[in-house]
Amino acid sequence: MRVFPVASLIAGLLFVFACGSNRIVSGNQRALAPLFDGWPPVIVWAWQRPEDLSFINPQQVGVSRLVETILLKGEGVIVEPNLNSLRVPVGTKLMACARIESAPGFSATLSPSQAREAAKQLASLARSPDAKAVQIDFDATDSQRDFYRTLLVELRQRLPRPFPISITALGSWCFGDDWISNLPVDEAVPMLFRMGPDRASILLRLEDGDDFQEPLCRQSAGISTDEVVPRLPAGRRLYIFNPNPWTKATLDRTAIISH
């Protein structure tokens, strides 16, 4: 496997990641979740299209692959598998990801039984080939929070131990909104792209050197190749989204920008 032409920059990410993951924390801070120890400092999302990521170095880059989309429709749970191909080198750390959405034009009951059924479907992610963790992408509204909590508690009970759970998180969940603080997950990835009305204030706080108030959000960050990369504290694992097919050049360029 070839190393990246920007290996020195990636090495810098590796260095600050290692320093951050071994730092001493105080107060309500906590170190990186032990279940994610050994994961690369960069994770790329492989979304709803074929991806050839055979060029990545597994020691530096992992992959979170969208395996399925779960649609909540009335009391039902509809699973739409992602059948697109994915090529990665042997030894790549893989995360099985699922997106949760409400079916357009239908109201979900958000009942405990619907949460249990969704968790049952999500537990199957652990059986995805070579998956070492699961990730849930759900932009839960205020009215969906109890449902999401019930789902995650049920999912944790169904997954083998130890098996890491990652969730994506709106930036507002990490600043001043503590509803995720007791969720049974190992990390919450602040999504710092495609943000809504809170975008300017969140980016300004990060630029001023503030950190997320929620400890679960202090382990990683989600960025995109087509948006300005915000200032982040050292030692954060980067999840990178690309609206276009991945190429080595795009990954190299993003690594330069995010360093």
Q: Extract low-pLDDT stretches.
A: 1-32
Radius of gyration: 18 Å
Total DSSP E strands: 11
* CATH architectural type: Alpha-Beta Barrel
What is the CATH third-level topology name? TIM Barrel
Overall morphology: globular
First and last CA, distance:
22 Å
For the record, the CATH class is Alpha Beta
Output the number of helix runs: 6
The arrangement of helices and strands along the chain is: HEEEEEEHEHEHEHEEH
Mean pLDDT comes to 86
What structural category arises from helix and sheet content?
A: alpha/beta
Largest sheet: 9 strands, mixed
**Roughly how much helix do the residues carry, as a percent range?**
25-40%
Total separate domains: 1
Strand content: 25-35%
Describe this structure in words.
This protein is α/β, with parallel strands linked by helices and 259 residues long. The chain has a single domain, classed as TIM Barrel. It is built from six helices and eleven strands. The strands form two sheets. Strands 1, 3, 4, 6, 7, 8, 9, 10 and 11 form a nine-stranded mixed beta sheet that branches. Residues 1-32 have low confidence and may be disordered.
Pick out its properties.
single chain, 259 residues, TIM Barrel, nine-stranded mixed sheet, globular, disordered N terminus
